[in-house]
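Sequence only, no structure available. Ideas?
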Amino acid sequence: MSISPKFLSGSQIRQTFLDFYAQRGHKILPSASLVPEDPTVLLTIAGMLQFKPIFLGQRTAESPRATTSQKCIRTNDIENVGRTARHHTFFEMLGNFSFGDYFKKQAIAWAWELSTEVFGLPASNLVVSVFREDDEAFAIWRDEIGIPGDRIQRMGEDDNFWQSGPTGPCGPCSEIYYDFHPERGDNIDLEDDSRFIEFYNLVFMQYNKDAEGNLTPLQNQNIDTGMGLERMAQILQKVPNNYETDLIFPIIQSAAEIAGIDYHNSDEKVKVSLKVIGDHIRAVVHMIADEIRASNVGRGYILRRLIRRVVRHGRLIGIQGEFTVRVAESAIGLSEAAYPNVRRREAQIKAELAREEAQFLKTLERGEKLLEEIINKLQQQGQNQIAGQDAFKLYDTYGFPLELTQEIAEEEGITVDVAGFNAAMEVQQTTAQNARETIDLTVQGSLDKLAETIQGTEFVGYAELSSLAEVEVILVEGKSVEEAAAGTEVQVVLNQTPFYAESGGQIGDKGYLNRSSQGENGEGLLVRVDDVKKESDFFVHFGFVERGTLRVGDSITAKIDNSSRRRVQANHTATHLLQSALRKIVDDSISQAGSLVSSERLRFDFNSPRAVTAEELQKIEDLVNSWIAEAHAAVVAEMPIAQAREKGATAMFGEKYGDVVRVIDFPGVSMELCGGTHVSNTAEIGLFKIVSEAGVAAGTRRIEAVSGQAVLDYLNVRDKVVRDLGDRFKAKPEELPNRITNLQNELKDTQKHLAAVKSELAIAKSDQLLSAAEAIGEFKIIVAQLGDVDTEALKTAAERLQQKLGNAAVVLASIPEPDKVSLVAAFSPEVNKKGLQAGKFIGGIAQICGGKGGGRPNLAQAGGRDASKLQEALESARNLLVEGLG
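Reply:
I predicted one. Tokens follow.
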């Protein structure tokens, strides 16, 4: 009796996998955030990423075995999404991990048992690959599992040697493939994705790769595996691709319903767009849930790009207007059982999608207008192909997809230079690769190599401002050295430190490392520390050797700048109070979107759909100062994260938390999870003053503020300004607002009078042109320049001339400022009937002067930058009018 794959839902597959390994001693751990701790990658790309410090020996595992369902994002092959059966940007990786416990033999045995006995995959449908040099894995599969040798494929580094990034843990791997068509025989080609799908990857983590590409054996042999949830769902649910599984298809159906189409009866082009929407919506929902905000850099740019691709593909299948929020509801519903934070963050997800979609729809509309202008110009010139550079400008600047440009152009009988478009795209991609920000891995790479010989840094700075410490590592220009002489910039790792490392928006401490002249070497030592950063479990002190020689193994005194620390602590606690006040006064759903806490000031970014009013800002400032005056004592405690959340503690943006967290509680005022340093009583802050409030991105606001001594410094500067203004205006401080308002009103009146005079002058000049009007058949035309008349006066003059002439076309120009050209066209209805539209006409003329413009068929205006081309533009305008009206 042959075994048949069991039908399981996506949720059942996930839980079956976790239960299988939990029964075999693995601890079930939650998915890590899509925002990784690892500085070498922008987004979490694999299940093992959260365990990288454990594989490197930098952190001790809480359990020797673990299993997870990890949400991942990869965009390296985004163009394949929707076009192949199994490419995604967002996917879930089911994984089992061993940290120096079991290795190849046990990992292979369990993978086979799970695949064949639990999921019911027939052995005859399975093929295995191993790294070409991994004879051990080959022998286990053949001799112990019993797979015929001809169904075990040896493959090279590109396929069967796995690494998580440019540096870090890596090793050979073995993959299990499902064969959809075993009847085709033993001519096995694993590249044939119409027949084979790789669904389980077993990585035998044996090495660490440094920044130079060198491999060194890890202290422990580890196991890292990944089973693609979507791929296993395709196999067990017997559907033709991952998109038609119950993990994604309900999202596709919701998009299809909005578009008024049926997925199964659609052509391949429409199906691709629906698949892209289904995949990308899953990705953006989870990215926003993990507090990623759309922007033009880093992971924020990836989020924005994905949202825009969703909108573009919605347009391609006929959806008009906003729709992403409705589709996102389906994705949230599918994910909330496994990932409850998507429902908790529902409001933020929908708000971010709505803002980005509305903004991009406006951009698309501008692109459509530009495309219309390009087509009109081509038609006027008798051409029938859009240049590749123009098509690329539409794509790159306005997000206009090439296929949409082609579709609209085709309706007008015009083609697109696709080869030219691809050439422009290639130039842009090359430029982007050359200009891409790269993370300096020199320090990280050196620490990775040393990780197995030294322990992490113990932080003692919550209780101590100075401590004795031993120098464990000295890095100069990223290279490990034994000593560093005076005059050298260094990065130093100590066995323990009172220095706080930059984290959670708080800057690193400043201070000194010193040794008296009575030390072992008989020489004094002074290292100025300017910054401290944390790399994995190491605190890296960035400094400068001012005196003496620093050596590995030295016993030194590490002492922070206490004055700077006090100011930082005051600002950090003030940030907590500010967030609490914002929630009480503005909106209790406000969440942090970033922060900076330095010794001079604090900056707090938060999610809000609107600006905070001046009245609200004053109330916030007053409330924070009242809490300071009430002298609330801090209660600092460590507790399980579940208990902290149950108590209502607020999490800090961008922070990663373990099972046990540090809670900073000012009872009745603020309670947050935070690893930063704080005052012991709010009274130590002294005073709090908001300096500014402004928008920094769609839906994100920023408050800048000062506290303590910095408030006095701020007020002294403002007082000096007020005194100076009082002296200039001979007024008391309280009289200054009225005095300035009166001056502004006088200036406005003067400007209005000047504009009226200019308009009268323009009309007077234009009346002189009536006698010079040129007759073209039944029409009269005027094409002229009116000196430095401003645009509004020019517009008035053009309208007046056209009305006086009647059946006429008037084009007027001026140079109101150096390097600025103004153009206006006024056409009568009879001119319009001849096929001349003022908006399209003046836009084409303005391009000669390096400008653009448009408007209604009867009246339009444009601007340009190149005044030297104005005469040429006017001659072109006259010629076109003569040709069009003759």
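The two ends are 89 Å apart (CA to CA).
Hope that gets you unstuck.
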